[in-house]
Amino acid sequence: MPELPEAETIVQQLRRKVVGKAIASVVVRDRKIADARLPGIKSAKISGVSRKGKAIILELEKERFVLIRLGMTGHFHYYLKGAASPAEEQKYEVVAFSFHDGSLLSYNDIRRFGRVQLFLSKETVRKALAKLGIDVLSSAFTLAVFRKLLEKRNKTTIKMALMDQALLSGIGNIYAQEALYRARIDPRRKISTLSAAEVKKLYAAIIGVLRLAVKKHGTTVENYVHIEGSGGFQHYLQVYQREKCPKGHPLKKEYIGGRGTSYCTTCQR
């Protein structure tokens, strides 16, 4: 499932490709996923692209917004004027935005767990995202804030807390495992057992892992692709889908909060 680095990669690419462009038409191919009102934004210009956690927002003129949740397999394709989307991709197309310069942006979803919604005011977008916690790559996510947030989940295991989107927005199964390994913290531990030094180390590991993953355009281990190709962070994974940690110790795998979790019983305490 795409997490924060994958969403951020796509946001950066969309800013380069579609900001400033006027929409000529919108074709909705699956109304179960895409808002049936989307064709009504014809002639609107895309003024910006932003993100909160894993949610992507296309900002339009006159305070209209298209909110995209990628789900498990949601992804975009961008085509210049005269380039047609392959038949294989058209099969999974949910909605297509055509621009006045002849280019086209399509949102595709193989497993159909994503969502494309239209909002007609900034306040309604804010309400739609209100249940999401703080974005972990925002300037507001400081060490002091992290400590206070963890205190709210004092009896929860640290792995589950990191993946709680109502607490911290953007961290999923891949990056929670990677950050915990780099911080040398056992994912099964209760937050109440963590020392101040360990929380500080984990905070640094989260920021470091996510920034590197963004730099490498996300992680491609199954279905994820960004607009310009595949991610590269899979070459830097230390525990996720690995048999041994970088020090050569066999990894243990068990389910925590219903998600498969790999960790090193020697390195992580």
Overview of the structural elements:
The protein has helices spanning 4-18, 87-90, 122-128, 143-151, 158-162, 173-182, 196-215; strands spanning 23-28, 46-52, 55-60, 64-69, 74-79, 93-99, 104-109, 115-119, 134-135, 168-169, 252-256, 259-263. By secondary structure, the protein is an alpha+beta fold. The protein folds into two domains: 4-128, N-terminal domain of MutM-like DNA repair proteins (Alpha-Beta Barrel), CATH 3.20.190; 134-263, Helicase, Ruva Protein, domain 3, CATH 1.10.8.50. Strands 1-6-7-5 form a four-stranded antiparallel sheet, with helices on one face. It has a four-stranded antiparallel sheet with strand order 2-3-4-8. The protein has a two-stranded parallel sheet with strand order 9-10. A hairpin with a 2-residue loop joins strand 2 and strand 3 (55-60). The relative contact order is 0.15.
User: What percent strand?
Assistant: 15-25%
Number of helices: 7
Kindly give the count of domains: 2
* CATH 2nd-level architecture of the largest domain: Orthogonal Bundle
Tell me the strand order in the biggest sheet: 1-6-7-5
- Please report the distance between the alpha carbons of the first and last residues: 27 Å
Mean pLDDT: 95
Q: For this structure, what is the CATH class of the largest domain?
A: Mainly Alpha
> What is the N-to-C succession of helices and strands?
HEEEEEHEEEHEHHEHHEE
What's the alpha carbon Rg, rounded to whole Å? 20 Å
Helix content: 25-40%
pLDDT < 50 stretches: none
Number of E-type strands: 12
Class inferred from helices and paired strands: alpha+beta
